[in-house]
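We read letters as residues; the fold follows as tokens. A sample entry reads:
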Amino acid sequence: MALEYYQSGALDEITLRENRLAINRYRLRPRMLVDVSQRDLATKLLGQTLNVPILIAPMAFQCLANSEGEIATAKAAAISNVVMVLSTLSTKSLEAVAAQRQNTPQWFQLYIHRDRSLTETLVRRAEAAGYEALCLTVDAPMLGKRESDRRNQFTLPKTMELANLSMSNLAIPQTSQESGLFAYFAQQIDPSVTWKDLEWLQSITSLPVLVKGILRSDDSLKAYEHGAKGIIVSNHGGRQLDGAIATFEALTEIVETVGDKIEILVDGGIRRGTDILKALALGAKAVLVGRPILWGLAVEGMKGVAHVLQLLIEELDLAMALCGCASIEDIEPSLVKINY
């Protein structure tokens, strides 16, 4: 059940596959005879300097992969100096995860629940715990249909809980012939959320808010006009609307529309350092990595996650050297060409 929950997409998994295929359609055009004896992978995001343009994407229920779950992931993020984005639906509390940060920034992902006071409480707790940004997921007014979860009647084992929501007595229900997570979203997540709610969220916090789940240029412009500090181009890892555009296909038009106005990040199918370089060349400031982190967590806990991150960092460093880029600022659009 846990494996299928992590690896599956919605319906026929067309979008899940397309995320990878879209990345592979881009080819690299390396520059030669450039001094790359020293490379600098640092970048600026939301006014902060990050050691690498890589973030850990928000992923729910990480204790399904390892008993330490999000704690192990946070420890690996701190060791690797990589920003972790914690899911609202984590199996370790946001306070416990924040305690692992050391000097590495952490962000908090947010769903707007029907109970707005619950949402506001989560924001206050994230502020108090030292999270430095909020990522509002907007592509899940209802949960996509994941047939393996429905077949398995997905729910959390009795030994696990929604750690951030336990004080509100919220839990993933056990259902007959349905995914418990699908039932949770139907009962708890507010499907009436609009752009006005983005303004409401910003009115109750001083933290920068990024909007996660944008796939259209007009929506990217609305996010900017409604005060968002960043956009995460995302289709939820192919887990929501099957047949939706791949994130790399959406990225280019969004960069053309708001690339000089707002921070743009992208996720979906990132598996190699060359994938990261392509995303940066297309105009993203950074990428979020999801499933590879879970595989590392399942294999060897904190050490597994740290190993995955180290592989990505080393591969990005090598790709930059081979493409004639001594710094992140040297990565620009001429380095990629789409191959139809």
Remarks:
- The first helix runs from residue 2 to 7.
- Residues 9 and 239 are 4 Å apart (CA to CA).
